[in-house]
Amino acid sequence: MRYAMAIDTLKCVGCSDCVVACQLENNVPIGFCRDWVTETVDGSYPNVEIELRSERCNHCDNSPCVRCCPTGASHIEDGGIVLVTQDKCIGCGACIQSCPYDARYSHPEGYVDKCTFCIHRVRKGEKPACVAVCPTKCMYFGDLDDPNSEITNILKNRKFKALAPEAGTNPHIFYLI
Amino acid sequence: MKEELFVSGRAIPNIDPYLNIWHWQIPLYLFLGGLAAGIMFFAALFTIMGKENEMSTAVKKAPIIAPIALVLGLLALLLDLKHKLYFWQLYTTIRYQSPMSWGAWVLMAITPLSMIWVASYMKELIPGWKWKNSLLDSFEAFIIKYRLWMAWIIIVLSVILGIYTGILLSAFNARPLWNTSILGPLFLVSGMSTGAATILLMSKSHEERRTMSWIDLLLIVVELFFITHLIMGMKAGSQVQIDAAALFLGGEFTAVFWVFVIVLGLVFPAVLEVLERIGYHIPVIIPVILILLGGLMFRFIMVEAGQITRYLY
Prior knowledge:
The structure holds two protein chains of two kinds.
Chain A: E1 3-8, H1 17-26, E2 36-42, E3 49-55, H2 64-68, E4 74-76, E5 82-84, H3 94-98, E6 105-106, E7 112-113, H4 119-122, H5 129-133, E8 139-143, H6 150-157, E9 160-161, E10 173-176
Chain B: E1 2-6, H1 25-48, H2 56-61, H3 65-80, H4 99-120, H5 122-125, H6 134-145, H7 147-170, H8 183-202, H9 206-235, H10 239-246, H11 254-278, H12 285-308
């Protein structure tokens, strides 16, 4: 079972509903965020292209954050979801240093926090909060190992990219372009 | 024109706009760890070579600095942790892929060993020293008997201590400035150089000073070679590494790096030591302080500059 997310950049309008939903669902402290929206602008008027991306932890296969954690707090759960066991985290910041996507942050309570793919919802069969709330329905979440899942089909039919593939992390968030 | 920005209002403290979660505690610990590693390395080396008496400061006196440096370094590390009450979790597991885990265990081993090393020489350092307890007397006799074994263990641990700090930084592939395997050997040589400089300062024997100054000179040359190698490697790497090297070649760290680390921290002390060997009398405190400060500055610069380099945005 390998969970992944596909986000259609052609449909994203940058409304940041995904950011707000995540904040509410996961009690993210004010001033911090587990997901965010970036806008990349290419060219200059009148030939401008904009790409909007909702970014978060990529739950990488070859995650540098899991590798460098000295206590094993940063670990991979069933389905490839990278999690932090708060009671094992010493707050050393090594995982924050090792993430090429700047996906992690230091929670005010001391441990390191990040997107969890809303594992508490996923285990109940629901979608992560950001995916559930998106008004343009541009986010897809599912099991890459399931040949019939929505995400497997969309990745078969559309062109997609991942962020910083040269970092060698094998991310699980794909942007449909 | 290509422009990339956050539009959802992301401004996480210490992460945006540039990563800055490791502050002064980490470079201070890297320096103290390297210093202790260097001192204990020479103490163990000269013991193994049978030169305890010719190199008596290196073997008997200078190791006093090692436990002090290690304890202060460990304190700095504890201060850096953001979930301090859980620090003991480090010692519930050993994770082979995490250099930080190796470091935690090596420190756990070498700190008491360095204290025992110093304790075993107490009678020679302080005439008239008596242990309060007869158990301590028998422990001391045991240590003195097996000093050569201890020296072998310490020489291995001190090399690991010196090199793992560099390996730790180089394991973070998200920080292009650090992600080079030369960093491990570079930090090791730098640590040994600071250790040799400390021994040089503390020594009163002319012969010992000549040997240590020769060793220090050699270490400085090797360190300069490794730094050249570091920059050449960056320039011949991928775009993110070329950008990282640019920080030292025209970017914001150019002045501090070349002035404080290269010239004042390495080249100038080396020149002073050569002048001393030729016959001019240079007060030894000058090159030693320059080498120590250069080592400290190098680590401060590497930790700060490394956090600025990144793959994205």
